[in-house]
Amino acid sequence: MRFKLKVWRQKDPKAKGKLVEYEAIGVSPNTSFLEMLDVVNEGLVARGEEPIAFDSDCREGICGTCSLTINGEAHGPDHPGAACEVYMRRFKDGATIVVEPFRAKPFPLIKDLVVDRSALDRIVQAGGFVAARAGSAPEANSTLIPKHRADRAMEAAACIGCGACAAACPNASAMLFTAAKVSHLAFLPQGQPERTSRVLKMVTAMDAEGFGNCTNTYECEAVCPAEISASLIAKLNREYVIASLRRNAGE
Amino acid sequence: MIGSLDSKIPSGPLADKWANHKDHSRLVSPNNRRKFEIIVVGSGLAGGSAAATLGELGYHVKCFCYQDSPRRAHSIAAQGGINAAKNYQNDGDSVFRLFYDTIKGGDFRSREANVYRLAEVSNLIIDHCVEQGVPFAREYGGLLANRSFGGAQVSRTFYARGQTGQQLLLGAYQALCRQIAAGNVEMFPQTEMLDLVLIDGHAKGIVTRSLVSGRIESHSGDAVVLATGGYGNVFYLSTNARGCNVTATYRAYKKGALFANPCYTQIHPTCIPVSGENQSKLTLMSESLRNDGRVWVPKKPDDKRPPSQIPEAERDYYLERKYPSFGNLAPRDISSRSAKEVCDEGRGVGESGRGVYLDFADAIARVGENTIRERYGNLFHIYEKITGENAYERPMRIYPAVHYTMGGLWVDYNLMSNVPGLHVIGEANFSDHGANRLGASALMQGLADGYFVLPYTLPAYLAGQIGKRPATDHPEFRKAESDVQARTRKLLAINGKRSVDSFHRELGLLLWDKCGMARNAAGLSEALARIPALREEFWRDVRVPGDGEEFNQSLERAGRVADFLEFAELMCTDALSRDESCGGHFREEHQTPDGEALRDDEHFADVFAWEYQGNGSVAPPKLHREPLVFETVELTQRSYK
């Protein structure tokens, strides 16, 4: 197969970026999208040009490092899944493919297709945890958790923290990301003691990072590689309202 | 230089060693803890849990990772589960059984005391992770669920769908986030350790490079903890993440830390076969699939018929045939080697002939497609994405791939290397898995080290070190910084013709061929002759574009591959010196009449720990041997028949 690529190149955060055209020739349909970029980079290095910078690590869809917008879609055409799980057999031979970074104001660009997503870490640091000290836990089976609750917690906890939700959202909202963590812990008995303060702190951090609000476009759910349901955003809103009332009532 | 290796294993009965040791170890009082700075390199299950726990205790911790967030460490990709001796299934499990299965699974090449301690703290890990909010699988009544895993006859594995590593890592990451917010841990993402700094023989700091700005920096500490994972990527293709590397542990080795058992590598039996030469990594299909899948190949060589047209009588379910009592659940090393054997006989399947079938047809007929979908749906989905094939209709094709490395830096019972102050935890050390790791034991070891062992053993070192932390303007830091800078400049100045990856790929193929699932003296000697030549060519002809003071992924990779090119020689030297077969180290010269690994306990029941003397032929590494003393278990030929 062969493809024409238009790839976002930008030397550093201050430089002006632009789409640059490259050819990918002799690509096997069983090659992954990132491996196709590897081959293009090998060609660039051989010609003495700078390779395209892009992020990836596990290349099996779980670490959340890869962050490409392919033909305008966060993570490309093969949902649910991360960019590293897209294979070239998904494209028509001879197609033109546009490759851009995840674009959202709270994700400043580092180079080419690489962005800084540390804003997501800071949201978790604000309260996305249970204050459990090593050594002080009770016996694991002393608290029973009904299977359906554990399953719902797991569905929310599956978030890989890639930030595609914010990249796909017209408001650059990270509410799906935040909702996933708030819900995961709110579904479990261990998350109850800090339930109120957690949601208030995480939402405050989310706003402070410059992420926008949800206006129900559902783009986040459509691109989420971990299939996090947008209904959790409604849960986040409920958690937040209840917590705000509690705080205002001085509880 | 280095005398006899003292493993510092406490005396007394096996079951009391850890408790006694804790009772008599030195402590650091709460008001002194904040005076100590601990450097933790790596933020996976071991590093993340250690950094968080040391932070909770009141130490000041600096934690470093090459990823852009600590949550992305490769522990996240572990699928299957974590073992613990809870005996929730009432099927006869106990701390002793978990200990015994683990030491037997490791083919009796690990320390009794370490493995027993691991089994002992396994239960605390489950309690703690549940308390953190890890959503383990549960039964309808609300109790924790378990499943069985290779190499065990009890169900002791806890899991969170096929994403157990992810959920455990997020638990550690969240605990770490809490300590970052509290100001106890300072996090340095996208920062790579490029050298270890020793002052008066003690590990007192590291030199790092920011992967974003290229800035070289020194960090001093009262102790250094390496939790930098394994070296599986020396083979280029492995199930490891692209960034996994040997650099931190190899740099420590070059500064005097002993590297133990580097030839012990684990080849996992159930991975998706290689499909083309541009492939950048291999993907694991969880071992849990072997609970329901049956492994087979055609009886006839070169049988090109599609699997559905091969009648039952012409199939060889070789694991069930050779190991009737464990069948498809035989340990990883044994299953992998069996797959290689049948492919070597020309009976492999798929285009390349390097593959075997993992067939779910019987399980689907027995319990229905829906049940199989519930159990393994995400794995079947991944398989279809990668291969374009539907495994509900057609058997999966699998083949072994490099997955885990049991070898690592030598540590004593306190997890401290022979370099005072340098502690090594998780996959980066050598201590608990011997020559083969059982499934669901890696997560257990990483978290045991970080949550429940290091926090007790580190104070024993720190107690004598109050006020000894150097400033980073010490000449040793200056020297290490300038060495790092000189090396970076050298890599950038070569400006040759070949890419970094082309060297890495060539090294990987050579090692897979000569130091992979089966090894022999002739092949290892050949590899040892070829590696220095390849390394020489690398330093003459590699092309690393860009410059050092910027985000430069080619430069990152070049530094790691340069270390792999040296480390590979150490690995082959170890494999050649260990003139026996054990676990994942299969020397073709040493096998039983039916082709199993044949140990030589008289000559090799010890740890090989290598001391750096200079590269390769210039000065071969010096071997130190730590005898393994078995007070409790009897060494037997492993049998899974």
Can you characterise this structure?
The complex is a heterodimer of chains A (251) and B (641). With 251 residues, chain A is α+β, with helices and mostly antiparallel strands. Chain A folds into two domains: 3-111, Roll (Ubiquitin-like (UB roll)); 117-132 and 141-248, Fumarate Reductase Iron-sulfur Protein, Chain B, domain 2, CATH 1.10.1060. Chain A has eight helices and seven strands, in the order E-E-H-E-E-E-E-E-H-H-H-H-H-H-H. The termini of chain A are far apart. With 641 residues, chain B is α+β, with helices and mostly antiparallel strands. Among the domains of chain B are: 268-402, Succinate dehydrogenase/fumarate reductase flavoprotein, catalytic domain (Flavocytochrome C3, Chain A, domain 1); 475-614, Fumarate reductase/succinate dehydrogenase flavoprotein-like, C-terminal domain (Methane Monooxygenase Hydroxylase, Chain G, domain 1). In chain B, helix 3 (45-57) packs parallel to helix 12, helix 4 packs across helix 5 (112-132) and helix 5 (112-132) packs across helix 12. The relative contact order of chain B is 0.16.
